[in-house]
Please model this.
Amino acid sequence: MKSLANKNILLGVTGGIAAYKSAEIVRHLKKSGASVRVVMTRSAEEFITPLTLQALSGNRVSTELLDAEAEAAMGHIELAKWADGILIAPATANTIARLSSGRGDDLLSTVTLAFDGPISVAPAMNQAMWRDERTQENLKKLIDQDFGICGPGSGEQACGDVGLGRMLEPIDILDMFSLSFNEGTLSGKKILITAGPTQEPIDPVRFITNRSSGKMGYSLVEAALESGANVTLISGPVNIEPPSNCNFVSIKTAEEMYEAVMHHISGMDVYIGTAAVSDYSPAKASDSKIKKDGSSSPMVLELKENQDILKSVSELEQRPYVVGFAAETNDLIKNAEKKLSNKNLDLIIANDVSNKDIGFDSDDNEVTLITEKEKHLIERQNKRKVSKKIIDFISGRINDQNN
Ligand code: CTP
Model:
């Protein structure tokens, strides 16, 4: 199945015996990283309870068009705006007829009317109903209106008949449905991203750290997921929830980050080091809280240098495309170019952290992408958009490499 990661999928469930399989569809959708909302017709509720689909999707199931409370939470227009794609499974003969004539007399039909994106239906009905000319005509109208049609399959039916009309298996429906979305530029690629600061303990209550909110790294993770990549995120402590559809590894110290990166690096296509790794850590952390000694002499803390994780990755024999960040307060481009060559990187992203508008805790950023051959400025904008551009740049380069 192509990636449905980060997609908002609205599943319409209508009243057929195959409705019980919609629970499995929700489960597969969630597993592939999609957010799922379910709309059920009244007759679907005769076959499977909204509570089951609510528990599996993690969202309230919508059933009624004229329900003031539900409309206040997320009405039919909001549902249509929220969705990236609509899948109706099972789709009964009646639903197919109503959709084909553009009816808007219940919640599911109004949402599909208001929706402007890919819609697929998975027909499920008795074989004679499927073969009926009127059903076939309705189906043709849906095809003409760009609906995707998943199935039906052939075999023994619940009523004992044998023939075409059975709903396809959930995984096969999703295989077909996922084709309605354009393939991401990083589809099938594996990316390892480090983010956030590290914390180097001095004693049980104190540590050395670097300033980093993790925002840039986490938004790169989102952008990479949106491009269809399989993402592993190794992060120091930050106040951001990691996306549920990435492989998340939580660490605290630079040493732990180094170990985690080396453990996960094999087979990666891209490594992006956004983490603000502490260059030094206390030579020996005290087991107990260090007390003031009462003297006025300065306290001396012996520090040892940590391994440069980025450099270690670029020195690997089987190295991925290696991307580093240069957070600088002065001589931005010169310092970044030095790091590009000293650490033998494919790309360095130069970031002026002296500018408060684009610095550490800001939602905006402005960066220069530097490779051996080119420099490319991404002007100040939201970190989400900057991340998308960085990911597009990287996918362009690695796809070039592979051609
Ligand atoms: N980095 C790393 N391991 C370290 C230090 C830095 O992997 N021990 C990575 C960062 O994730 C970033 C890049 O190296 O991608 C540059 O980090 P930065 O702190 O700007 O550079 P340093 O090499 O530490 O140089 P300096 O602190 O002297 O500017």
